[in-house]
Amino acid sequence: MSSSFGTLFRISTFGESHGVGVGAVVDGCPAGLQLSEADIQGQLDRRRPGQSDLTTPREEADQVSILSGVENGRTLGTPIGLLVHNKDQRPGDYGEMSQVPRPSHAEFTYQVKYGSRASSGGGRSSARETIGRVAAGAIAEKILRERWGIEIVAWVSSVGAEHAPDINPDTVSRTQVDATLARCPDKPSATRMEALVREVLAAKDSIGGVVSCVCRNVPAGWGEPVFDKLEAMLAQAMLSLPATKGFEIGSGFAGTQLRGSEHNDAFVQKGDRLGTVTNHAGGVLGGISSGEPVLFRVAFKPVATIGQAQQTTDFSGNPVTLEAKGRHDPCVVPRAVPIVETMAALVLLDLAMRQEARHT
């Protein structure tokens, strides 16, 4: 089931970029949770297009409707249906590209795999598919926050060659992140990032970046050895997102340059639990949460669809010049921040429920 994710807290997303709507079905949500559209809408508002001149100008309110699984403001324990209608579709923008696979775009591989594809907007390969993930993940976030006090905060740590200095993962907040259009909590870095995105946009080009994320107050013991390790499930979740090309946790690739004597996280008593002095492991040991903050990073490539003329071929192999139409982000990372947060929530809640099932 390629459109489903999770084991005990399981979601299935549906819909195409320029179809009637997009959404998700959530299965496994506990009964009795107080839930309304307002609990979900906040993250969708952070993800939606048209937020600023750094994003696609597509105008979508992305208002969510709860179709099932909730009565009198509380969950029933039955599947929760979530729907967001598409309002600003423009399939005509893609007419000239119907026979030309966009360079580095998934429409080529969809055509090869299925023998057909959505005729506009990339269909399921569009980032608009992530609306269902964000809506479902917002429910998971609410459960994690209310039951365990877990806080999940993501931010943009780089755009192209513009890197922010190290952000303190113990104190960074969503308020700080959302204070800049680039969603970088370091304002001088954010200013440089925003200028770079505008430069790229003016050139009808695109650029990539990195989103960092911290999950605080995650109890020790979550994660399933051997194949469903916490970092493995996070990697699967993040690399399933459109435009992702890299994942690292803790010290990541930079840790390969350290010696064991430098990289090891020494244990120390922290109140009523053992903790570590440093956190090079990113809050995970042997695939299981250690009780330290879970810290990881996700790399997003430049958006494939650009307005510059590109020399390529059509599906028959005939040389063509492609100048893509449509409305696309010059850089996806500012809008990717809530998507990363909600996917992390889906992973953590599913592993939490599996841990609870083991105890019962």
Give the topology, please.
Blueprint: E1 4-5, E2 10-15, E3 21-27, H1 37-47, E4 64-66, E5 70-71, E6 74-75, E7 80-85, H2 107-114, H3 130-148, E8 151-159, E9 162-163, H4 174-177, H5 187-202, E10 209-216, H6 230-239, E11 244-249, H7 260-263, E12 267-270, E13 273-276, E14 284-285, E15 288-289, E16 294-300, E17 310-313, E18 319-322, H8 333-359
Antiparallel strand pairs: 1-2, 2-3, 3-7, 4-7, 5-6, 8-9, 8-10, 10-16, 11-16, 12-13, 14-15, 17-18
Helix pairs in contact: 1-3, 1-8, 3-8, 6-8
Q: Write the H/E string, N to C.
A: EEEHEEEEHHEEHHEHEHEEEEEEEH
Contiguous runs where pLDDT drops below 50 for at least 5 residues: none
> Strand tally, please?
18
What is the correct CATH architecture?
Answer: 4-Layer Sandwich
Mean pLDDT: 93
Question: What is the rounded Rg?
Answer: 21 Å
The global form is globular
- Write out the CATH superfamily name: Chorismate synthase AroC
Proportion of residues in extended strands: 15-25%
Kindly identify the CATH topology. Answer: Chorismate synthase, AroC fold
Q: What features would you describe in this structure?
A:
The protein is an alpha+beta fold. It has a single domain, classed as 4-Layer Sandwich (Chorismate synthase, AroC fold), CATH 3.60.150.10. It contains 8 helices and 18 strands. It has helices at 37-47, 107-114, 130-148, 174-177, 187-202, 230-239, 260-263, 333-359, and strands spanning 4-5, 10-15, 21-27, 64-66, 70-71, 74-75, 80-85, 151-159, 162-163, 209-216, 244-249, 267-270, 273-276, 284-285, 288-289, 294-300, 310-313, 319-322.
